Amino acid sequence: MLKCDFGNLHREVERLESAGVELLHLDVMDGHFVPNLSYGPMVIERLREVTELPFDAHLMISEPDRYLDDYVSAGCDSITFHVEAVPEPIPLLRRIREAGCLAGLAINPGTPVDTIEKSVGDCDLVLVMSVEPGFGGQAFQPSALQKVRRLRQRTDDNVLISIDGGIGPDTITDCAVAGCDLYVVGSAIFEAVDYQAAINEMQTLAAMPAS
Ligand code: ZN
Is residue 86 part of a domain? Predict the structure, then answer.
């Protein structure tokens, strides 16, 4: 939810829900950890009133520990923060779980996967960034696939691997082959005339390696 029509958020959520998305990925930016600003817990809380879809919050913010309670009470179901913002992430991952949410850890393109290997046991979700965080509409960086493969080999099957940045019909099958479970799609849906057709196409392409 970064490339959507912010003037019609309620309508956008309805369109996505009826088109069959499985969750809403909410990109939170603070103008400090990343150079852009987006929205925060107040907007999320209002969205919570209009849909039952799970909320997957991606906190691209400095000091996520300071604001965690706001995102929990806004109604997020999973909360992901960056290892680049919190180099010792285990205590915060545990706090997120104790709050009843799925705990996620995100990793930027320039950060080696070893950085998070000790922490994945405390994660429900690992978010591999396939672009630099902070802007929508960037080109997919194929080096992310190597990270996904390595994480898939070394983590439990119950840890979800999500990929974020430049995901669309041209990249989603490679992500599925590498071992992703979740795909964050922005422009490839929001720039489509027909959200349902775009989502159906990508669901089919993501399922191809299994069939
Ligand atoms: Zn994101």
Answer: yes
